[in-house]
């Protein structure tokens, strides 16, 4: 077992990454059902939360079945972050995570996200303020450093542990790398192997297959891994990794029935959580990703993207089941999208 504060997790837990516009409660439920051990919300602005923006408040919703869940906050002002942490405390997630990794210009400019990697003293003060204002275990997610010349994660890890964080997740890139190049896990391993560090250290970046998960587990010795892009459209990766770690065997690719089932489950949760209009719209990006690889699936695209009634969409999904009955899906490599390709630095 692995412990974060009072939360018990299995050995080598698999974490769903916080992802804006992706890691909402319906998606988190789907990931949990398919093997995620700990899930995180999208990042939430501490300012927005304090001003009670409806969108931010809704991001605090948690389904019981997805727990344990970490709520992720960002903010560059100690008092405001601490105040937001108090609001989060009331909603009782299992833990509170601080985002010190977001590279997006607008966030960095507020002195939040990866911006604080240039000011470790501020990072420490922000973290300490959070730890003191909540009873929840506080964790941090960050990157290796600001740029190649200033990879300060080893110092950051020690100092954040000293002010009371209970776990650290490290994305193996710098802020200036955005998603360029390959994630470098060797520094993550150095943090993990530092005898001063006793909190769990989770590795993050580029995991997209059971084989890579096992290879990185063995090579870098981290306490668990966090997965982001690869599970968008492929939540089954969690169970595939767990099975491979346990048995050394690859599970067969999910069947058409399982894929359609995930579409239906997420649709049902989206309707429940977002209501009839937003629930339908927010699912539109998901269907074809879940059904990717089925020859001719694009024929169903228009129907899935235009129907506005749940019954009509469910009928299309049932048609897909009939059309592809008995079709055996092949396992194909999961492509990694570079989400920040056109982001200004
Ligand atoms: C669409 C998208 C949204 C993201 N939003 C957040 C976020 O809200 N908070 C955060 O800490 N990281 C966010 N990230 C970064 C991921 O959590 C993760 O660190 C990164 O994608 C690297 O992991 P991966 O290679 O497994 O995708 C986001 C990534 C993507 C692709």
From TrEMBL:
It holds the Pfam family Dus. Its EC number is 1.3.1.-. It catalyses: a 5,6-dihydrouridine in tRNA + NADP(+) = a uridine in tRNA + NADPH + H(+); a 5,6-dihydrouridine in tRNA + NAD(+) = a uridine in tRNA + NADH + H(+). InterPro entries: Aldolase_TIM (IPR013785), DUS-like_FMN-bd (IPR035587), DUS_fam (IPR001269), DusB-like (IPR004652), tRNA-dHydroUridine_Synthase_C (IPR024036), tRNA_hU_synthase_CS (IPR018517). It is an enzyme of class 1 (oxidoreductase). Residues 15-320 form the DUS-like FMN-binding domain. The keyword tRNA-binding applies. Keywords: Flavoprotein, FMN, NADP, Oxidoreductase, RNA-binding, tRNA processing, tRNA-binding. Its cofactor is FMN. SUPFAM superfamilies: FMN-linked oxidoreductases (SSF51395). Coiled coil: none annotated. One of its GO terms (molecular function) is oxidoreductase activity. Belongs to the dus family. Catalyzes the synthesis of 5,6-dihydrouridine (D), a modified base found in the D-loop of most tRNAs, via the reduction of the C5-C6 double bond in target uridines. This is tRNA-dihydrouridine synthase. It comes from Niastella soli.
